[in-house]
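Lecture notes, unit on protein representations.

Consider one protein chain, 558 amino acids long.
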Amino acid sequence: MSMSIRAEKISFFYDTAAALQDINLEISQGTLTVLCGVTGSGKSTLLRVLAGLAAPAAGRVVYAAGPGDEPNVSIVFQQPETQLFAGNVHKEIEYGLEQHGVPKAQRAERIRSALSKVGLPYESFAGRSPFLLSGGEKRRLCIAAAIATQPGLLILDEPTAGLDPQAAQALLTLVQELRAGGITLIIGTHDLDSFLPLADQAVVMSQGSVHYDGPAAPLAADHLLLRSAGLEPPAYSRIGHRLRRQGLLAEQPDSLDALLAGLSLQLPPAPAEAGRPQTPEEAQLEAPPANDNPEAPVREHSQTAPRRRFWQGLDPRVKWLGMVLGSLVVLGMNSLTPLLLTAALVAGLIGTAGISWSRTARFFRPFLLMFLFLWLLSALDWASPDITLGFLGFSSAGILRGGLNVLRFLLLIALGFLFTETTTGAPLREALEWAIAPLKKLGIRTRGWSLAVSVTLQFVPWILGKLSQLQLALKSRGRLQRGPARWSPRQISLLIVPLLILVIGMGDELATAVESRGYDPQKARTPSYQLNWQPKDTLALASVMLMAALLWWVSRIS
């Protein structure tokens, strides 16, 4: 059942940015490997490539299972709430077994065994909703779903993140039991204190490259290497190093237990040793890491800041007007020619705004099946179908009408996408409040309106991001189809409930945040962004109005 894995010259890109560069790794079967690195080092990306969920731009991943065994890899992501789908715990695990082709007669025993291994008794948990479990129980359920398929390689991404000490200790015990059972384990983590003492191998990532690959024990004692990668050495190693300098410890500990055992055997230090000044090398070892600010952003790769594009620098009022005018013109178009001209114009604007085509494709991909469904629905014409299409209930006029409706809808979404991608929250809201300020004289609470609109516009990208995470988790369960098959009725039904739960939860958090900040729509507010109209904004406004007038004229004569 156990398997080894080898990565050969792996590279991976997000758009044009290198996330992984020339990665070479070899992980032996039955071992536990810790993969660590600061946020943005490429750690999570590498885990997805090793799990087969992302195809590398270059290189390959080679799996070596036992004779006659198919490579079977399972992965558990950091956030359990984005990888639960079914109505109860039994069905949650059964879905993955079904995707792996496990006969129905064998599923119940596998589910019962997997739940027992993670400490969730079948009798108590099988019928419960996975969405109502605690954070630690959700994490253990995700691991149960992963190990029920009997993988040769199990990948865990930040398994102790967000767990209380008791739940984290239970998870460490589970990891040790899985390792003793022969499963090859790769654990992506920042928690070096917990996992380095258990590991056979350690891999340190830095800026998309392998910074260290070797035995785990020497890494814990190499403070300079860890700090050069932005990581803090484990607490037991730091304490052990200081105690060794003071003569309280004979050798460097490789775990907390070793530290405590060493202390119990040592006598008090000699006075001269206790007061010995630090050497320059020791002072360097004790120095804090170069960037110890936990809130400082860390990029996936080393690069200079991108140049600000023309659209990003425009006054948000110009962009608001452009979106409103563009939407009105598009809604008034009833023929193909002006819609195609508008589509070409919007595509050009997206290109000049510096939005990558891969980012654009990822945004529109979830809408494809909906667009197709709307087109087919609009094309139905049972009253007077064409002779050639009558048996399908379609007419050529209906197909054209449906295509125009879908294209119009697509253009409206594209305008919103262009707007939100080039306008951050504060400018967006300040421009809207400026535009609707005259409504205050009518007694309308314009502050509430602007807050609702700005939150809604920024909520859509968040929802699409969560949808992408849910899709990835669903794909990790087994044979998720590619292309349109990914949006089959069953796949959609599995995604709807967890997505709604995430949206409702996010809405509650936003409402709580607004309430906690004492938001009062009757009081004056200090602007968080100062609007500043410049000559380039006048030029842009004139161009927008001219283009809107031209498109309106084309739509009238078509």
